[in-house]
Predict the structure.
Amino acid sequence: MIVRDDIRAAVASGLINEKQAADLISLSDSRRGARENLHPGDEPFELFKGFNEIFIVVGLLILAMGWSGVLALILGDQMAFGSLQRNTVIAGVLSGAMLWLLSEYFVRKRRMVAPAIALSVLFGINAASSFILGMSEPFMVAQNDYTSVPLPLFLATLTLLVYWWRFRVPFAMAMIAVGLFAVAIVFTASQGGRIDDISQFFLLSAGGPFAWITLVLGVLVFAVAMIFDMSDPHRVTRRAANGFWLHVVAAPALVNTLALSLLNSEAASADIILFCVLMLFALVAIIIDRRSFLIAAIGYIVALAATVFDGEGAALTVLILGIVLLLLGAFWERIRARVLRLMPGFVPLHRLPPSHA
């Protein structure tokens, strides 16, 4: 097998030039998968491959602003020939078609990461705004009547699912999960569930259904993420990237709902239960080899320490969490190897990432 040192030696001997060597390495990485070059045990994460992708993203954002402005001017002059909703639908269809064509080039042909994320975000925003403005009743929404909003939101989420099915952008999967959260919450609000305080989304004792919706959907999103993860335990395909972004959505929903409910509990054992819950999340994160769960839990506690706790307790809490996070980051593989050895036989370890320690 030819390795990179062999290619460098070929360049030094004059057998091939530097451009040919770079093209050969690029072809090899694209066929084998650049993730194989990661250190064993490292979790794949990629937002962009080079500054050219950032350059293209900036161009896409500027293009989107200019496109929106031109469409607004054109359709604004044609208001006499159609209603606002009709013009909104026309603008949405034209914008969606343009974003689709751009995705065909930058996502399917060029396989770019950052432009794929930007295009999926723009496509999702365009779908949501087009369906909501084109189908909902603004006057009803202004009067806190959301009965006309769930269907447009659901159709926008379904459209984003079609986009994901075509281009398989992992970040779009996270947007689909967020869209389902929005559909469920708005549908519940339209059926008489009032949102009097933001804490209703996180407090199981708030009396409303929103915290339970957040918890149940968090569990479902986590389950789908595990389906993706277990279908690709070595994490060499985009299925693992889909699982990563779904974990990013599921972890805060689960951790925040349970943690905030326990913190607002007056029971003497609430703090102990909260610690056990956080340890359970850490254990799950270690077993499935997803650091996003642990980051969500620790980040949440740090936010609470900065806003709820007072005095030296807050500083000490943040200091301890920082030490714990650094220790886990330094010895993650060793800790995970020992934890996996203690797992019972019914745990499908062959469908989880292997331990390299």
